[in-house]
Specification:
single chain; 138 residues; mainly alpha; 4 helices; elongated
């Protein structure tokens, strides 16, 4: 149980860090999108929108993998502690964030792309931040 707890802590912290960096790339992609619409490219001239979106997607894939492991280890810990899988707000939000990211990554392989998917990923990051702060900051 100690190993699973340690793994859960490391994986959830790694997930938070990866998703935070993905959030930054998502915000930069949105900024770049609006700059291009206004024909103002001076601020982020070193980055193309495609490069930022590609990095954003790559980070989300890694973050999703870590989130999956964190969710599974968390469920194992919950089951070992309670003998059941009680659906708490924390678990509900974690599964919801996992579902959002799963939907995002699935839609990336389909033709539906763009700012809606970036907004969806930013919403997922916001949910994960709330979960992380709620669970780890007392």
């Amino acid at each position: 149980m100690q190993i699973i707890f340690f793994l859960h802590q490391i994986v959830t912290l790694s997930t938070a860090l990866i998703m935070a960096v993905a959030f930054v790339f998502g915000v930069l992609t949105v900024i770049r999108h609006f700059q291009l619409k206004q024909k103002n490219v001076a601020i982020l001239s070193g980055f193309s929108m495609v490069q930022m979106a590609d990095r954003h997607q790559m980070l989300l894939k890694w973050g999703f993998a870590f989130l999956t492991v964190g969710l599974l280890t968390g469920l194992i810990l919950l089951f070992q502690a309670n003998g059941s899988l009680a659906l708490t707000a924390h678990i509900f939000m974690a599964v919801g964030a996992w579902g959002l990211y799963g939907f995002f990554l699935r839609k990336q392989s389909l033709p539906w792309k763009g700012m809606r998917l970036i907004a969806l990923s930013l919403l997922g990051c916001f949910v994960l931040t709330i979960i992380f702060l709620q669970h780890h900051v007392h």
